[in-house]
Amino acid sequence: MKKQMSFMRPWAKGLFYTFAALCVGACSNQKAQRGAVVNEVAVMPVELGQTTLNSSYPVTIEGIQDVEIRPYVSGFITNVCVSEGDFVRKGQLLFELDSVQYKAAVETARASVLVAEASIATAELNVETRTELFEKSIISEYELQTAKNTLASAKASLAQAQAQLVNAQNNLSYTRVTSPADGVVGKIPYKVGSLVSASIATPLTTISDIANILVNFSMTEKQLLEFTREGGTMEEIIDAFPPVQLVLADGTLYKESGKVKTISGVIDPSTHAVRMQALFPNTRNVLRSGGTGNLLLPVTRDSLIAVPQLATFDLQDKKFVYVVSDSSTLVSTEIQVLPQNDGQNYFVTAGLKPGVRIAVEGVALLRNGAKIKPITKAEADARVKNIVNQSAQAAQK
Hints:
Blueprint: H1 2-6, H2 10-33, E1 39-45, E2 48-69, E3 75-80, E4 87-88, E5 93-97, H3 100-135, H4 141-173, E6 176-178, E7 183-185, E8 195-196, E9 205-220, H5 221-228, H6 234-240, E10 245-248, E11 259-263, E12 273-281, E13 292-308, E14 312-315, E15 318-324, E16 330-337, E17 345-350, E18 357-359, E19 372-375, H7 377-396
Parallel strand pairs: 1-19
Antiparallel strand pairs: 1-18, 2-9, 2-13, 3-5, 3-8, 4-7, 5-6, 7-9, 9-12, 10-13, 11-12, 13-17, 14-15, 15-16, 15-18, 16-17
Helix pairs in contact: 2-7, 3-4
C-alpha cells in the first residue's frame, strides 16, 4: 500500500488525506460527544516573507517587420512563385507580371539614346568645321555660337534619353516582384491573370519577419509605477524590467523568455494604460504574426503573508481563515488577498498579523468558537499515515 501511495498523483494524495482527516474529525467528534478529548487540528504560524508572483497581461503578437508587398507598375500577374506560409529570403522572387510592354519601352528608350548619340557626333563635327571657318574670318561669331548651342542641345537630348532608358529598365525590373526582407509569406489574394497596379487596395501579400517577435500589451499607470518608481532614463527603466514569459493561445508556456523593449511615453487618458512591447526570439518559428496569448511579468513583493489555499474557505464571496487564539479557540477571520497566487498559497494583504496561528487542514469540518488541540503539520501528517497503514493492514486480513 505504501508503494502504491508513493506513485499517486499529488492531487489524489490531497483528496486521500482530506478524506482521512474527515474520518479522524468524525471520530474525534464522536469522542467529544462521549466526553473524551477535543479535536486535534494542524496549525501553523504565519510570517512575513518575500515572494515573486506573475502578473498576466493579454497580448497580440506581430512580426518585427510586416511589409505589405505592392507592385510598382501595372500589369497582369503571369506567375505566382510562392505559396502562403512559405519562408522566403530577401530578394527572392514572389510574383511576375506581364513584361511585354515594358520590354518594348526599354527598346524604344535605347533607340532614343542611339539617336541622341548620333546627333551629338554630327553636332561636334559641325562645331569643329565652324571653328576653323571662324578662325579664317569666313563666318561670323554668331554662326559658330549657333553650332555650339546645337551641340549642347544634342548632349541634353542624350541625357534625357538615357534617363528614359533607366526609367524603362526599372519599370521592366518591377515586373519581377521580390521580397524586401526575410520572412513568412502571408495571404495571397491574387491569382495568375489578375490585373494589379500600385494603387490596389489589398496588397499582393505581406512578408512578416518573424525571426524575432514583438508582443504588444498594456499596463495600467499604477502597475507601471511599481517598475518605474526609481526613475532614470528610458533605457535604464527598460533594463530594470525582469525577463518575461509568454503563455500561448493553447495555454502552454513558450520555452524562450523575452525582454521588454519599448514603453509608450504617453498614458492613454481614456484607459489610463500605457502601451508596451516585449521582444521574443522565434528561432523555431513557433510564433506567428497576428497571434494572441498572455504575457507573464514577474513582480517581487516584500512583507507578504502566505497562507495555504486549503486553509481558507469562502463565505459570500469573501475569504476567511480560522485563527487559533491563545486559549486554543477558533476565530473565523476575514482576509484580503492578492489576485495573483502560485496555485498553492494565497498572499494576504490585510486581515492577519505576523505570529498568529491559523488552522491549515480540515477547515470544512471546523466551526467558529470551537475548542481544539493544536498540533503541528508534521504531527498531522504522521497521524494520517498511521491511519493509512492501519487501513492497509485491515484490508490484508
